[in-house]
Specification:
Largest sheet: 7 strands, mixed
Strand content: 25-35%
Number of strands: 9
Number of domains: 1
Structural class: alpha+beta
Order of helices and strands: EHHHEEEEEEEE
Helix content: 10-25%
Distance between the termini: 34 Å
CATH class: Alpha Beta
Oligomer: single chain
Length: about 180
């Protein structure tokens, strides 16, 4: 059963990965030469030794960092950098606060995708907190019809999807998150 959250700034204590995500808002990749050492450190801590440049898409890295630092027993997908691999994460759920949302990019048939965490929604889009959204950690509107799947951690508390409604006024719809 879904409930609608009334206070858009409060977070349930059972969603520590979402709290980490919020604390990372506005982390940006380095434009041009060089990389943000924080983003590179996330990869190093996950054992992704081949990840050495924040020009490589890092939405999956962001989600892996948020989940793995808070849910130590949770398995993350092999090659978490590939957004669509997050369809194998945890268990299927309905979109709600803190859920991992996996989207298609370019086309449903493409291997390309995007992954982030549910923050809120409006009538036509999910508001997703994620990495590599305009080269930063932001909250971005992504069309609901691009959603492939919503997932929930096995080791997280039993999910009771919290639906948070937001306005779309003044917020553009993202069409390409890289």
């Amino acid at each position: 059963m879904s409930t609608i959250a009334q206070d858009e700034t409060s977070l349930p204590l059972s969603l520590p990965w979402l709290e980490i995500a919020m604390n990372l808002l506005d982390v940006k990749e380095v434009v041009g030469q060089g990389s943000n050492p924080l983003i590179i450190d996330w990869a190093a801590k996950l054992g992704l030794s081949d990840y050495h440049d924040d020009d490589i898409p890092w939405c999956g890295l962001f989600v892996a960092h948020c989940i793995s630092t808070q849910l130590c027993e949770e398995s993350i997908p092999n090659n978490p950098l590939l957004a669509r691999n997050w369809r194998k994460f945890g268990k299927q759920t309905t979109p709600g606060l803190g859920a991992v949302l996996v989207f298609w990019r370019e086309s449903k048939e493409s291997y390309k995708g995007h992954v982030g965490l549910y923050w809120a929604e409006d009538d036509t889009a999910y508001h997703v907190i994620g990495g590599n959204q305009s080269n930063a950690v932001t909250v971005t509107r992504i069309a609901k019809d691009r959603l492939l799947e919503a997932r929930w951690p096995h080791t997280g508390l039993d999910e009771h999807p919290i639906i948070r409604m937001a306005t779309n006024k003044g917020y553009l719809l993202s069409t390409n998150e890289v």
